[in-house]
Each structure stands twice: as structure tokens, then as C-alpha cells.
Specification:
It contains three helices and eleven strands; from the N terminus they run βββββαβββαβββα. By secondary structure, it is α+β, with helices and mostly antiparallel strands. The chain has two domains: about 55 residues, no CATH class; about 140 residues, Alpha-Beta Complex (tt1808, chain A), CATH 3.90.1570. The strands form three sheets. The protein has a six-stranded mixed sheet with strand order 6-7-8-9-10-11. Strands 3-5-4 form a three-stranded antiparallel sheet, with no helix packed on it. β6 and β7 form a beta hairpin. It is globular and about 50 Å long. The chain starts with a strand and ends with a helix.
């Protein structure tokens, strides 16, 4: 079955692509597009990132992924209430790091590193970035994104795998894989943040 590629603001028609297409799909940027300015991005039903000079589209999240992201953010939210020196972002939290503009399922910044609200992308790397695997972004794709995060200055990356009920913790010094019964290892840049892996799967296990 053909899938529609979303149209940019000034497009007149949706382009049909084969049902076997692999996501992400590259889109032609609309006139006036500036990857550093959020207001110039096309409005689509899905997710966009600007990576290595390409505007990439992903469909909206499926049910398992969205419920897991919610549990991830609940865990981070409980922690940040006790650590007000940090800020947690979610909802495809916009990052402008180097020449790329991307979104994180969840991210943690030091409040002191931020310069106030602008309505645009955050241009400071978070201390922690977290991604949840879904239908079109599995472990391999998220490992690639983890490498990008580390290269941009992020200290620690969590890759949450709902199907396997596991989480990968990736840092510049290596990685570890944790099943549902584990507690994630604390990292000195995010003190006391050590949720259980099961915390991320409360809803899908319910």
C-alpha cells in the first residue's frame, strides 16, 4: 500500500511512495527554509530532523513507543522535581547542535547551561539524551543517533527498547545493556538518577 509523504507548506500535492519505502524519507526543504529557525520548518503530521544537510521525515509514533516515552518522562520528571538545578525536555525536544537540528524523546540539561526561553531550538548539548525504539527506528538506528549525541557533547545516552524490555546505556567510555530487573547505573553528571528499567514499561506491562 502506498504511503503519502507529507507536503511542505507551499506544496500542492502529496507524493505517493511505495509501501516498501524505508524511513526516514528525505524531503525537499521549502523555500525560505533555515534549519536553525524553527518557524521556517514545514508543518507535517510526523517528525522532522535536519541531519548532514538533509531534511528527514518520520511518521508519528505508534502506541507502544508513545506509552514508553511517557513512562520515561514520568521517571525523569520525578527526579527533576528533586534536582531543580536541571531541566527535562521532551516532545521531540528540539536540539540545534553543530549543523544539525534534531529531536530527542527526552533530554536533561543543566539549568546553568541554558540562557532562558527563546521559543526555538536549544543550542547547548544536554547532559543526558534518551530515545525509545519504535516501528521505524530500532536499536541499530538509535545506536547511530547515540554516536551523534556523544560527538555533539552529550555525556550519556539511554536507548530504551520496549519490545525487549531492555535499556542500553551508552557513554564515550562504552556501553551496557540492562534487562527489566536492573537499575540503571548512575552517572556523575546526573546525580541520583538511577531508575529501574521496569519504570519505563509500566504502561505496556499493565
Amino acid at each position: 500500500m502506498a504511503r503519502p509523504v507529507p507536503k511542505a507548506l507551499d506544496d500542492e500535492a502529496t507524493v505517493q511512495v511505495p509501501g516498501t519505502v524505508r524511513f526516514p524519507v528525505e524531503l525537499t526543504p521549502p523555500d525560505g527554509f533555515d534549519p536553525a529557525r524553527l518557524e521556517t520548518w514545514p508543518r507535517v503530521d510526523g517528525r522532522l530532523e535536519w541531519v548532514a544537510g538533509r531534511l528527514l521525515y518520520m511518521p508519528p509514533c505508534g502506541d507502544r513507543q508513545q506509552d514508553t516515552v511517557t513512562d520515561l518522562v514520568v521517571a525523569l520528571g520525578a527526579w527533576v522535581r528533586q534536582h531543580r538545578e536541571f531541566v527535562v525536555g521532551t516532545n521531540e525536544a528540539g536540539l540545534r547542535l553543530g549543523d544539525d537540528s534534531r529531536g530527542a524523546d527526552a533530554a536533561v540539561w543543566r539549568r546553568a547551561d541554558l540562557s532562558g526561553y527563546t521559543g526555538g531550538f536549544r543550542i547547548v548539548p544536554p547532559v543526558l539524551a534518551a530515545e525509545v525504539a519504535g516501528r521505524y527506528e530500532g536499536e541499530a538506528e538509535l545506536r547511530d543517533k547515540a554516536r551523534w549525541y556523544l560527538g555533539a557533547g552529550v555525556a550519556v545516552v539511554w536507548i530504551v527498547l520496549p519490545t525487549e524490555r531492555e535499556t542500553l546505556v551508552v557513554t564515550a567510555s562504552g556501553e551496557s545493556r540492562h534487562p527489566r530487573g536492573d537499575r540503571l547505573p548512575p552517572h556523575p553528571d546526573v546525580p541520583d538518577l538511577a531508575p529501574t528499567v521496569a519504570d519505563f514499561f509500566v504502561q505496556i506491562d499493565g
